[in-house]
Write a structure and sequence with these properties.
The complex is a heterotrimer of chains A (about 300), B (about 375) and C (about 240). Chain A has about 300 residues and is mainly α. Chain A is built from twelve helices and four strands; from the N terminus they run ααααβαββααααβααα. Chain A has one domain. A two-stranded antiparallel sheet of chain A has the order 1-4. Chain A has a two-stranded antiparallel ribbon with strand order 2-3. In chain A, α2 packs antiparallel against α3. Chain B folds into two domains: about 210 residues, Rossmann fold (3-Layer(aba) Sandwich); about 150 residues, Response regulator (Rossmann fold, 3-Layer(aba) Sandwich). The N and C termini of chain B lie far apart (about 60 Å). Chain B has about 375 residues and is α/β, with parallel strands linked by helices. In chain B, the strands form three sheets. Chain B has a seven-stranded mixed sheet with strand order 7-6-8-9-10-13-14, covered by helices on one side. In chain B, strands 2-1-3-4-5 form a five-stranded parallel sheet, with helices on both faces. Chain B has a two-stranded antiparallel sheet with strand order 11-12. The chains are: A mainly alpha (about 300), B alpha/beta (about 375), C alpha/beta (about 240). Chains in contact: A-B, A-C. Chains A and B meet through α1, α4, β1, α6 and α9 of A and α2, β7, α9, α10 and α11 of B.
């Protein structure tokens, strides 16, 4: 039982991180129909910010907000420089653009920082563990769960209470009409990118605090997971992205934890098999964007 | 008209002729970008240092200038095969291939049909020369040899129960299977195994499983490398596991020493250590003088080894040797003094005999544990996947 | 009377090679209700969408008061005093009624002005006040149309553009909507309405322009057009 509970804590922690990542993709997708594969590079930028702060002797407490700021700023610049010129192009054009942005950033990291993975100093507090009810829980697991909850609550408050948050939901539903209301397209899109940058930054801090290093290609795996989670939840649906992220986390952890040893080698194909199965049963994902109409946000 | 063509052809022949006499062209098809750049990059730095040193002294044997021709293969297997072919077409007589066995093996057909010897920068899978054939060489202590050294050390410390965590995704990351073989051959016990995926971020499920074992394993062995290894050991320690952890050369990197408390008392095998007055200490000094920074990884020295091996083979084969003769010369090298250790290919299938070094991490510092010779009787046979 | 509130000069709209609007001219005076009539594909909606910048104007000019608003960015319009209630209503279905109205007042800063806008819309449409916390997507078609008009009124426009306000509604509801248009006009809002329901539109409009194949086929006072017996057959597809 203890083992099950502990693995469930692990699943919540991982699922929460995936949820933040998927949410970052979904926020932008819902507004402008772009799947931003350079989302992972925003994480890398936050990671490098942590690294440079460490080298400069800036304490972790200050490094975290700086890293968040860096990924937000990078996201807004990314939109301004790369995505605005192709805003009205087809989804395929924007997708290819995002791949190009990701690759260009990777090459820049490799050439101007280092091809080698760089150590990031993480306070030992985060690497430690605490005892709760006889269970050993890693502090970074708790950190992941708490940050996920805080981010989800903040985002929900913003989208349901703030004028600009409501405007983003309006724009996500009908961009042209939102503009007719006087909601500026540039502002909404820049806002969506800033939020996705913030989410990428928080996810990056959780991610980097687990691995204690950052390398130019660091963003690839998380963006892939985020993409799977977003599809699983229903592309374009924010609630779906959160649900998809948690489901993916639970699938991965429970399989790794409870699949018989002789099947462990096939863990990934089995996990993706479950994802495909869910999509066969619910082709539009767990909580597709349209289903929102039936429930109070 | 005809005369012009004939004259031109003659000139061309003359030019290539002189080129052949004075320079040895080495084709470097390695990863300047992508996942393997972490390893290939430092090796090529060391290789260049070695080559510049040789050329500054007038070339190999005072006459033969080494020319490096580099192509980025972007850590991609197909790209490696293409680059290898291009380099052979450009007249390379020796090829340098990426650090991992899989892309290196992608160039097999090019290497064997052109009969050009190829050396992987730092692949350590003993199957590489077995699959690669006569023209494929490695430049690193084999996985099975490293595992023998680390298992023997663990067993001698009284650590008799082992848990291994490996990834079937690559040859290198299945090194713990050798470790398990040796442990069992010594009389120890393997009480559990787990697999992971390359690039896996989250090891909490595995860590929690190990933490819930009773009794706890004496030693946990993995050949995971960056970025998987730091995640793994942090997850393991956070879950409350205090067992000895043993790793391998892939984590001989500054990142490992920066992990902090979680990596304390970690032990891993690698290819060398700059003990006082050693060849590696001398290399490190040269490196610092050349690049203006400290060498941060043994893979710099490994690159220098590569230059020394090629120099020795070329000296043995003579300045006019063709690539086939160079291959035979490499295969017969004995006790070449490299930066990390003495290197011998004679009597092997292409997997060199070199020293294995055991390193311990104490408070983020590198401590030499020993450079023991493995007992040949218990070195496991290369495992084909 | 001065210059017209809205002047459209040689407006030309193309979708690739397709000419949707072919050099039309028309004016809307302050305080008028003007109807744009025509069969499906005559260019009515293209004209409206070009006026508000949702589709690009190929050539020609649109002047609103003293501003040249040709190819304006749609988000600038409410600030100038013009809003559009789009075809098919297009309320934000996942937002509540109140949130839809709040978006309509997006550009307003003055709290008193905002409060007045809420009062006015809830006065006109008591049903919206009743259902303010309901998702707009769950309203009936007629209620959604009221919301769409209410939303367009929230910015206190001088001029309201209505695109097919009767589309898909029951006859009784249509009457209500047209009644409402008159009320708004009485309150001083200038209105340009695009309609396929010709008789209803001519009933409330002062003047009308009949479009056919992207050009103005005929125009004049609403009463005169209503009396012209061949209007239906000639321009409106006999419907």
């Amino acid at each position: 039982m203890d083992l099950f509970l502990q693995q469930t804590v692990n699943a919540f922690a991982l699922g929460g991180t995936y949820a933040l990542l998927a949410l970052g993709l979904a926020v932008v997708f819902s507004i402008m129909g772009l799947i931003n594969f350079a989302h992972g590079e925003l994480m890398t930028i936050a990671g490098y910010t942590l690294m440079y702060c460490g080298l400069a002797g800036i304490s972790f407490v200050f490094a975290v907000p700086l890293a968040l700021l860096a990924s937000m700023l990078a996201a807004v610049l990314m939109e301004r420089i790369a995505f605005r010129p192709v805003r009205n192009s087809s989804g395929a054009t924007m997708l290819v653009t995002s791949f190009a942005v990701a690759m260009i950033l990777q090459v820049l990291f490799q050439n101007f920082i280092s091809v080698r993975s760089q150590a990031v100093n993480i306070p030992d507090v985060i690497s430690g563990s605490i005892l709760i009810g006889g269970m050993v829980i890693g502090t970074n697991k708790l950190l992941a769960i708490v940050s996920t909850i805080v981010m989800l609550v903040l985002l929900d408050r913003f989208l349901s209470k703030q004028k600009y948050g409501i405007a983003m939901r309006a724009a996500a539903e009908d961009f042209a009409v939102a503009r007719l209301m006087g909601i500026r397209a540039n502002t909404v899109i820049a806002g969506a990118f800033a939020i996705s940058g913030l989410l990428a930054g928080v996810a990056a801090i959780l991610w980097v605090s687990q691995r204690a290093s950052v390398d130019p290609l660091m963003g690839f795996t998380p963006v892939l997971k985020a993409f799977i989670a977003a599809i699983l939840g229903g592309l374009g649906s924010l609630r779906g992205a959160v649900a998809g992220g948690f489901l993916l986390g639970f699938i991965e952890i429970y399989l790794a934890a409870f699949l018989p040893a002789e099947l462990q080698e096939f863990r990934d194909p089995i996990g993706l098999g479950i994802v495909v199965l869910v999509l066969v049963m619910r082709p539009n994902g767990l909580l597709p964007a349209a289903s929102l109409k039936a429930e109070k946000v | 008209m005809n005369k012009v063509i004939v004259a031109g052809a003659a000139l061309a022949v003359a030019m290539t002729g002189t080129t052949f006499a004075d320079t040895l062209k080495i084709g470097v098809a390695t990863s300047q970008t992508g996942g393997l750049a972490t390893y290939d990059g430092p090796v090529i730095e060391g290789l260049k240092l070695g080559v510049d040193e040789i050329n500054a002294a007038g070339g190999i044997g005072g006459t033969l200038i080494i020319e490096l021709v580099q192509k980025d293969v972007r850590s991609d297997a197909a790209q490696t095969a293409i680059a290898a072919q291009e380099l052979v077409d450009e007249g390379a007589k020796v090829l340098i291939l990426p650090c991992d066995a899989d892309p290196a093996l992608a160039a097999i057909s090019v290497v064997s049909s052109a009969e050009v010897p190829a050396i992987s920068t730092c692949a350590s899978s003993p199957t590489l020369p077995m699959i690669g054939g006569d023209y494929m060489f490695a430049n690193f202590p084999g996985d099975n040899v490293q595992a023998t050294v680390s298992a023997q050390w663990a067993y001698d410390q009284g650590l008799e129960t082992a848990y291994i965590v490996y990834s079937p995704d690559s040859q290198y990351t299945s090194m713990p299977l050798y470790f398990a073989d040796v442990m069992q051959a010594l009389g120890g016990e393997v009480i559990g195994k787990d697999t992971y995926t390359l690039g896996q971020q989250d090891f909490s499920a595995i860590a929690t499983r190990i933490a819930n074992m009773d009794p706890q394993p004496d030693v946990v062995m993995t050949s995971a490398y960056e970025p998987d290894f730091p995640s793994f050991i942090k997850a393991l320690r956070a879950a409350g596991v205090t067992s000895q952890v043993i790793g391998s050369d892939g984590i001989d990197s500054p990142t490992t020493f920066a992990i902090g408390a979680a990596a304390d008392q970690l032990v891993f095998t690698t290819a060398g250590h700059p003990t006082e007055n050693s060849s590696m200490a001398a290399f490190d000094a040269k490196y610092e003088a050349t690049y203006g920074k400290e060498s941060q990884t043994v893979f710099n020295a490994i690159g220098y080894d590569l230059a020394k091996v090629i120099e020795a083979a070329s000296l043995a084969a003579g300045p006019d040797a063709d690539s086939k003769a160079l291959r035979d010369a490499i295969a017969n090298l004995e006790n070449v003094q490299g930066a990390t250790s003495l290197i011998t290919y004679k009597g092997t299938n292409g997997m060199p005999v070199r020293e294995v070094t055991l390193i311990g991490v104490t408070n983020g510092e590198r401590k030499l544990i020993g450079q023991p010779s493995p007992n040949p009787a218990i070195i496991p046979a290369p495992r084909m996947q | 009377m001065g210059q017209p509130l809205l002047q459209v000069r040689s407006l030309d709209v193309r979708y690739g090679a397709v000419q949707a609007v072919d050099g039309i001219n028309f004016d809307v005076e302050q305080g008028e209700i003007v109807a744009l009539l025509g069969a499906n594909g005559a260019g009515k909606s293209s004209t409206l969408n070009a006026l508000v910048g949702l589709v690009p104007t190929f050539s020609g000019e649109v002047i609103f008061e003293d501003n040249n608003i040709t190819n304006i960015r749609p988000e600038m319009l409410p600030g100038l005093g013009m809003t559009l209630s789009p075809e098919g209503r297009r309320v934000f279905g996942t937002l509540s009624v109140a949130e839809n109205l709040q978006m309509g007042a997006f550009g307003l800063r003055d709290p008193n002005e905002i409060a007045a806008a809420w009062d006015r819309v809830f006065d006109l449409f008591p049903i919206l006040a009743e259902r303010r916390n309901q998702f707009a997507g769950t309203l009936s078609g007629g209620q959604q149309q009221m919301l769409a008009v209410g939303r367009a009124l929230m910015s206190n426009p001088k001029m309201l553009l209505l695109d097919e306000p009767s589309l898909g509604l029951a006859p009784k509801i249509i009457e209500q909507i047209f009644e409402l248009i008159k009320t708004l006009n009485d309150q001083g809002v200038t209105i340009l309405v695009v309609e396929q329901n010709v008789s209803m539109a001519l009933d409330i409009a002062h003047r009308a322009y009949v479009l056919a194949n992207g050009t103005v086929a005929t125009s004049g006072a609403a009463e005169e057009l209503a009396e012209s017996s061949n209007l239906q057959n000639a321009y409106l597809g006999g419907a």
